[in-house]
From TrEMBL:
Keywords: Cell membrane, Membrane, Transmembrane, Transmembrane helix. The lineage of its organism: Bacteria, Pseudomonadati, Pseudomonadota, Alphaproteobacteria, Rhodospirillales. GO terms for cellular component: plasma membrane. It is a multi-pass membrane protein. The keyword Cell membrane applies. InterPro entries: LeuE-type. Pfam families: LysE (PF01810). Its main location: membrane. This is Threonine/homoserine/homoserine lactone efflux protein. The chain crosses the membrane at residues 6-28, 40-66, 118-139, 151-172, 184-206. It is found in: Cell membrane. The keyword Protein biosynthesis does not apply. One of its GO terms (molecular function) is amino acid transmembrane transporter activity. It comes from Thalassobaculum litoreum DSM 18839.
Amino acid sequence: MPSLDTLIVFTVAAVLLNLSPGPSNLYIMARSVSQGPRAGVVAAAGLFTGSFAHVAAATLGVSAIVMASAEAFTVLKWAGAAYLIWLGIQHFREAGGLIVPVGRVPAKSMGKIYRESILVEVLNPKTALFFLALLPQFVDPAAGSVTAQSLILGLIVVFTAIPSDVLIAFAAGGVARRLSANPWFALWMDKVSGAVLIGLGALVAAGEAPESAK
């Protein structure tokens, strides 16, 4: 079972990452802009459902690696830190590139949006890589079952996404207009997202995140 300190640090990190702009947020925003907040909320529900596949995959993957060898787990942690930093750098390099196609997303039924959203999330390789990069940083094999720790942390990521996704669904119109009309707003959002990812990766690389799990 993760320690209380680990749970607090990880929850804060998960909230910041869920609030930072990314493909899922933009997908919800596009649906809301096209068909209203209800469509955005349905899209968020589909993404939420699909994300459980990544929680399961990450939990089983991390557990298998830990059982294989401690060295392999260490390599995974360092690779995860490097991946988070790389994602942050990519956000800075592509700053200002956020685009929401206002009014150009084809209208669909709520059921189709939900099913499509599940598939979008399940088939998103970036989500799978992100889970494998983030979870191992806060897992301590000495603290108990790695499977249980990974599952708990994965569920935290999934459930902390709900408030931000719903907020985006209802606020999508205003945010989309700003993204479309104000390049500085898009630049700022990308830089915030990049800073969060780089900061988390640097924290892990410095050894603070693993220590907090002890």
